[in-house]
Recover the amino acids of this structure.
């Protein structure tokens, strides 16, 4: 639903079989309106398309992307072949992208040029469909945005099935909640200046600044959390107390071994091992304003 | 409500686009049937009846992010109008449930409105049991009578205090607990107004608000042996106003800017809770160990600081400059400020400390004015001068500059029980990140492409063990497209992080006014600032034989970090995933899928147990090799039994995760060996859904379905937790296994 810019005059489309260049073939020739094209093409192409911006606002409609559709229609009716019609399905990725970007070169889409998805040979139509889209928003090829991403990132779907997960599979969030598939400045295509800035979007209670700061927490939430899903509570990368003990091995209880003896079935159940482990006492590990909180206990 | 999405897609995967500069050849066979396209703009309203059951009590996991009501389910609707060229779409789903969602979208030509209202429940544990009862909006309490009787009992029996005696004393409390359902609700509203959407200048104004309320568990402890887990009250408000503008100032130059203000407010600055074993305040040097043979002292009431009000102001400007030779330069600069300005709560609730320690009667400052300035700069140059070569160079700078004041405190109160006259000082931790990266991509003919890149990432930190870390990463990607129906993508990364010296005590010392004797073993290396070698492998093979209806995708991912200079702390971390997915869609209304995934998470760490001083004896080392192995299998199909009349859908999956803590230690060391824990968050989840939709008329259809889920959790650190165990009271909510499901019938009217 991103608005295209006003279309511009374009050179004639190349003849069939001509060598292509990085520039997309352009539309030309007299335009047909949608109803005329619909006379031959399947209804499924138009079920939803007719309500999209492409159909409603672009003056020459089908011809804008498909070139000389009038000649195409005439040749088809005369049994002379397809004619000079342009099909996105047979265009190279860079041609498709150039075609789409001729209008969609603004907003987040403007960052697509040189981004990881473009470099790896993906085109706009890898994820989006002009006619047969399945999603209510963004004209994606799958009903849910995450399913589009999982086609190439199945390991993320696997992680999303863990017992601790963001509500992606419940449909309350999707990959686009955090990532910008059109690319941007950040690693992981994150939609914020840093990982923490992104997490603070929803977890504003963790933002601070705090009187007592926990430095690795301030720097990077993913030091302790794995956002795509974890087998441990609160998306933690490892179970407490061992996660904390990757850094905290000072004298007495922080460096102590907690093993089967300290579990709920052990002979020496420890309140530092069971339930929330270290957080049973050190509750405010994200930071606190309590004057008595240098150890994040209050 | 139905089970959450269970598996792989039921729509064709992305098409394999021909490589750059090359149109595809003619397809060898007829293409697959076009995917079924639902009418996304048709009007409808539906409602259903549902019978939902859960046969294992009330596990919150069953309804973690969703409602599963019995009775009326769902109602959903969509109304679309496209008269006079001003489309208008309004929709709603689950409108009688607490996971309801409404959206509105319209475009009048001069204004595009996008609005969303979404409710997201997050249930964390049902039937949590606490000795504390709600006595105020920010206060939990236990009757003075019970506190007094327990105080008298532990005082009278101090010499023989141990778990059996304490367990018998608290019997009245745990037999009549207060019951809470832990969890909270996020109610979110978002409004976006885009002015003159068809104009070259893009101007958007947005507003977001989230109200979050409920409870979550909090570790509110009165001492080493007296954890009293309580439900923390949550009443948050987050509001954000934003504006964004994008201006094409020339055919090859576009400028953009954003401004946003985000405000977080917490209705509760803190909350209080009672100590079951004290009705009067007291203190002594060992009170943090009470109740025990060493002390029965401590506070009658504790107080926990809650997340403080804070705000974020953010402004950014940037632009894109299109250069000759299919190149462009992008630059963005942003500034942000996080602020938190709040009155501080007292050192303690314990009147015995306040009466005897003058330092505790007044804070060095009454309020904290925290401020962090952030600066982010990004420059990106991309170019594809010829059709088979592209170059990307980028630089990113991020500065997290904590300008909060350093505040000296003469000491602190431990667990509201004991004043510790150890002068401390707050640490406004800051860091800077510089990242430079160059990437080159070359297409070898039409069937292969190769990408190589180098990245240098530097972090400068203050108040940490390491001042500077430098990581150099080499990146290689190889893609093969030998046919239009076969794609094999591979990427590899090799990283090496070096440091400018490690001072194991520096971070600890920074928080003391006078450095304390060392408490950390010399060989410890904290993994986020430690030297490491890392590699990443991602390989994905997609086959769509002859561009037909059968599609297979195989994926292998491996992330590995080796902290090869760390004697203690995290040594190695590994995540491996293998997935296989297959789709078969021979007809528009006939699709099947199956998938399998195997995943391994593995972290190896070495610790050292010490007494009062850091041990230097390697026999006191212990090793934890904690792993999670997950296997998941799923399959499903959708088939049109009677074309355009009767559709039938079945999906199912099963997942098994085995968590294992492999622990080892020298039998002659301080730990006297180690005993592994065989079940750490072992989970199994199975689900099955069957659904039939019958189209009665062009306007009516009816769907009948049922789904079932079985979830089990076995965790020797959590399952079996009782309300009172050695060392504390636990909420022990039911967030464990369940057998549950629903039968439903839904009628849909379309017009």
């Amino acid at each position: 639903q991103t608005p295209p810019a006003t279309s511009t005059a374009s050179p004639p489309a190349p003849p069939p079989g001509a060598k292509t260049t990085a520039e997309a073939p352009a539309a030309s020739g007299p335009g047909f309106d949608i109803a005329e094209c619909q006379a031959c093409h399947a209804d499924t192409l138009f079920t939803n398309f007719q309500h999209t911006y492409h159909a409603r606002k672009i003056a020459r409609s089908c011809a804008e992307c498909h070139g000389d559709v009038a000649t195409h229609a005439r040749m088809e009716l005369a049994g002379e072949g397809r004619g000079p019609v342009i099909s996105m399905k047979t265009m190279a990725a860079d041609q498709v992208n150039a075609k789409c970007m001729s209008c969609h070169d603004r907003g987040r889409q403007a960052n697509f040029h040189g981004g990881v998805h473009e470099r790896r040979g993906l085109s706009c139509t890898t994820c989006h469909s002009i006619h047969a889209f399945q999603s209510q928003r963004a004209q994606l090829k799958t009903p849910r945005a995450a399913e589009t991403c999982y086609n190439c990132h199945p390991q993320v779907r696997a992680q999303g099935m863990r017992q601790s997960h963001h509500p992606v599979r419940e449909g309350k969030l999707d990959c686009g909640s955090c990532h910008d598939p059109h690319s941007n400045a950040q690693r992981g295509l994150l939609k914020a200046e840093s990982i923490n800035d992104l997490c603070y979007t929803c977890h504003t209670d963790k933002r601070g600044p705090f009187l007592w700061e926990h430095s690795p927490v301030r720097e990077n939430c993913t030091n302790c959390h794995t956002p795509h899903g974890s087998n441990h509570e609160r998306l933690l990368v490892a179970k407490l107390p061992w996660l904390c003990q990757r850094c905290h091995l000072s004298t007495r209880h922080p460096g102590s071994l907690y093993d089967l003896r300290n579990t709920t079935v052990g002979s020496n159940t420890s309140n530092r091992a069971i339930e929330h482990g270290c957080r049973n006492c050190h509750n405010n590990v994200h930071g606190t304003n309590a004057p008595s909180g240098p150890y994040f206990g209050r | 409500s139905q089970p959450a999405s269970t598996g792989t897609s039921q729509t064709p995967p992305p098409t394999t686009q021909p490589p750059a500069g090359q149109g595809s050849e003619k397809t060898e066979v007829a293409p697959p049937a076009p995917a079924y396209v639902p009418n996304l703009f048709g009007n409808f309203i539906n409602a259903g009846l549902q019978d939902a059951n859960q046969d294992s009590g009330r596990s919150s996991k069953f309804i973690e992010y969703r409602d599963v009501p019995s009775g009326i389910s769902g109602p959903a609707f969509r109304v679309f109008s496209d008269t006079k060229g001003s489309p208008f779409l309004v929709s709603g789903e689950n409108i009688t449930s607490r996971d309801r969602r409404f959206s509105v979208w319209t475009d009048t030509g001069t204004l595009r409105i996008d609005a969303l209202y979404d409710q997201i429940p997050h249930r964390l544990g049902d039937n949590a049991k606490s000795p504390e009862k709600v006595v105020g909006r920010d206060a939990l309490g236990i009757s003075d009578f019970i506190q007094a009787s327990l105080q008298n009992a532990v005082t009278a029996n101090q010499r023989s205090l141990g778990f059996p005696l304490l367990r018998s004393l608290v019997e009245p409390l745990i037999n009549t607990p207060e019951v809470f359902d832990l969890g909270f609700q996020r109610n979110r509203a978002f409004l976006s107004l885009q002015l003159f959407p068809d104009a070259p200048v893009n101007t958007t104004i947005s507003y977001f608000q989230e109200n979050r309320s409920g409870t979550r568990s909090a570790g509110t402890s009165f001492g080493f042996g007296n954890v009293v887990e309580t439900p923390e009250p949550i009443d948050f408000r987050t509001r954000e106003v934003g504006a964004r503008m994008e201006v094409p100032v020339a055919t090859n130059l576009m400028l953009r800017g954003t401004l946003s203000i985000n405000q977080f407010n917490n209705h509760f600055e803190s909350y209080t809770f009672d100590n079951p074993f004290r009705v009067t305040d007291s203190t002594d040097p060992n009170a943090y160990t009470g109740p025990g043979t060493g002390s029965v002292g401590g506070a009658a009431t504790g107080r926990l600081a809650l997340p403080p009000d804070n705000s974020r102001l953010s402004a950014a400007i940037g632009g894109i400059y299109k250069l000759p030779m299919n190149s462009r330069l992008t630059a963005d600069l942003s500034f942000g400020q996080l602020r938190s300005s709040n009155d501080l709560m007292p050192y303690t609730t314990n009147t015995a400390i306040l009466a005897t320690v003058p330092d505790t009667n007044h804070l060095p400052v009454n309020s904290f004015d925290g401020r962090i300035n952030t600066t982010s700069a990004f420059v990106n140059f991309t170019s594809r001068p010829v059709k088979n070569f592209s170059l990307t160079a980028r630089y990113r700078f991020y500065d997290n500059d904590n300008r909060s004041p350093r505040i000296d405190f003469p000491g602190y109160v431990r667990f509201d029980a004991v004043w510790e006259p150890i002068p401390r000082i707050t640490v406004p931790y800051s860091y800077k990140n510089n990242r430079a990266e160059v990437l080159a991509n070359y297409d070898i003919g039409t069937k292969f492409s190769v990408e190589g890149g180098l990245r240098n990432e530097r972090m400068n930190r203050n108040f940490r063990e390491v001042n500077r870390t430098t990581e150099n990463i080499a990146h290689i990607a190889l893609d093969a497209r030998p046919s239009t129906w076969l794609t094999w993508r591979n990427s590899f990364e090799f990283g090496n992080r070096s440091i400018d010296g490690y001072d194991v005590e520096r971070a600890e010392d920074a928080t003391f006014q006078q450095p304390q004797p060392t408490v950390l073993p010399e060989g410890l290396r904290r993994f986020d600032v430690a030297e490491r070698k890392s590699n990443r492998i991602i390989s994905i093979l997609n086959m769509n034989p002859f561009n037909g209806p059968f599609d297979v995708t195989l994926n292998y991912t491996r992330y590995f970090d080796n902290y090869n200079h760390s004697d203690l702390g995290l040594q190695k971390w590994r995540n491996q995933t293998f997935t296989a997915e297959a789709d078969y869609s021979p007809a528009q209304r006939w699709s099947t899928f199956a998938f399998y995934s195997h995943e391994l998470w593995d972290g190896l760490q070495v610790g050292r147990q010490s007494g009062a001083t850091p041990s230097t004896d390697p026999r006191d080392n212990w090793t934890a090799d904690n792993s999670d192995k997950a296997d998941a299998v799923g399959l499903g199909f959708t088939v049109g039994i009677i074309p355009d009349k009767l559709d039938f859908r079945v999906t199912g999956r099963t997942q098994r995760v085995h968590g294992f803590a492999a622990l080892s230690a020298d039998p002659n060391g301080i730990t006297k060996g180690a005993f592994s824990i065989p079940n750490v968050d072992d989970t199994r989840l199975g689900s099955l859904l069957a659904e039939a939709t019958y189209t009665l008329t062009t306007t009516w259809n009816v769907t009948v379905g049922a789904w079932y889920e079985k979830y089990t959790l076995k965790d020797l650190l959590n399952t079996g937790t009782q309300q009172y165990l050695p060392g504390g009271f636990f909420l022990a909510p039911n967030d464990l296994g369940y057998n549950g499901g629903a039968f439903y019938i839904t009628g849909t009217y379309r017009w």
